[in-house]
Structure prediction request, 578 residues.
Amino acid sequence: MRKNLVLSAYILIFLVAAVFLGNSAALPASAPGGDRLAVSGMVTDSMGKGLKEVEVGVLVDGRHVKPVGKDAEIVTGKPGGFVADFILPAGTLPKAKVEVKAAKPSWKPIPATAVKVVEAGADAQGNRIFQANQNLSLQRTITPAFWIASIVLLLVYVVISFEWMHRTLAAFLGAAFILFVSYTLGSFDKSYFIVSFEDAMHAIDLNVVFLLMGMMIFVGVMKKTGMFQFLAYKAFALARGNVFVLSFVLQVITAVVSAFLDNVTTMLLMIPVTIEIAVTLKINPIALLIPEVFASNVGGTATIIGDPPNILIGSYASLTFGQFVQNLALVCTVCLAMSGFWYLWWHKKDYQKAEVKNVTRTIEFLREEYKITNKKLTVQALCLLGFTILLFALHGIFHMEVSVAALIGAMVLLAISKVDIVEMLEHEVEWPTLVFFIGLFMVIAGAEETGLIQIIANWVKDVSGGNLTTAIILVLWVSAIASAFIDNIPFTATMLPIIAFLNQTIPGAESGVLWWSLALGACLGGNGTMIGASANVVTVGLSEKAGYHISFMAYMRACWWPMMITVTISMFYLLIAY
Prediction:
């Protein structure tokens, strides 16, 4: 019995050793004289932009081969590139047929395509080295994921428009549903996969979120100084009780400040002042807030730092602060004048209801009532605000995101002023607005991943043909209408490579006119609805927090036609100037 056990143990050891040695013989180091194949390339879309997470397969004589050290398909990285090594039996290459194929959800798969193999010497283990390079281009295809993402995006906007639920809940419900479908139906059928959790998180523009948070804290601290009440008194004194003059002056101030700050920060500073003024005059603050936010978007269009789409365009096209001012300041000034007079007419009845009985007495009352209550904190806040604005202006030199400037300014202010950060986070940060942006970015990511925004952009490219005039009009108007309903930041990002392509293929476009068409369309078009631009969402959120509700349709009625007029003015300007 004991001998049998010993014999069984020897047999078991022999089998384990044989298996181990057999597996070792398949490794490169133990297989000298084999053929080593290195396959590399890029996978791009129709515009030449690299695509990540594309599964690439390599076939040799019709059979799949696995790369060294991997058990799955090759997957492209973020730039769209792939590279893999394969160990084949000696003598397989170069006579064997080598093919490459690629596939990704929402894209037409590329069937096995033969590639050219070139011998490139030998490695230290004696393997003959062969190289193959193949660049692939994928085309969009309509899948169930495309329809689901498009319908969800549409439903989110419809729900927000008719106010069937709070906009933050609508956006996050849409985002959650897209992820739910991706990880349930998408697990069984990739044609239902919309967007991964990682891509959804990556789509959240934290630069926007942290910029808003930093400036909300700034405003929260500055409220404690009495500065806004003091500014309300000064604005009223300047207008001498004339509400029409007051409204126009506030619009001009807002536009000018938005050109040097971003328009979101400007509205965060202006909203408390405006509400104080409106309460003093006993009129609805909305009659002053909507003209102001419209003016902030117009003024922000004039400079590279005034509006997020301009920041994207300037960075991608290497355009300077001076180029933006030179090409956009004039038309923005004309648009501001038009919108100013438009709102004086539109809100005429509201302004006429203002109670201004004794201007001199009211000014004296406001002077005594609205004083700066903390001069030390006021100086600290203004100094750090000036420092933050300087960082905004120099962000291109430092290659620093504007959110970093906002956060460093806000945090240093909290540290030196000893204001309670918990109080600021609980009462001054408008969390529903920030969460709304997060949810909306995720929903739009689904539309981007499945091709909805790309289809719109490609349509512009195809219809424009080679005519510069047609291209200017299409880029301007498609950007404007799309930006009114789809957040202008992701739309602008999608349009950048298309504009770069048109600049190279359309005679006369090398002047950069299409960049200005995109900037004017995306920035001014964002005025059309309450969700078209970040400043609009912030204004609606803070107005609601103060007790003044602005519905989607009321906002659109007040802003749609002046938006259309400003875009029309921009169209004639571009056609005449270029």
Notes: Strands lie at 35-44, 55-60, 63-64, 74-75, 81-88, 98-103, 110-114, 118-122, 128-133, 136-137. The mean pLDDT is 85. The chain has 25 helices and ten strands. The chain has two domains: 34-137, 206-577.
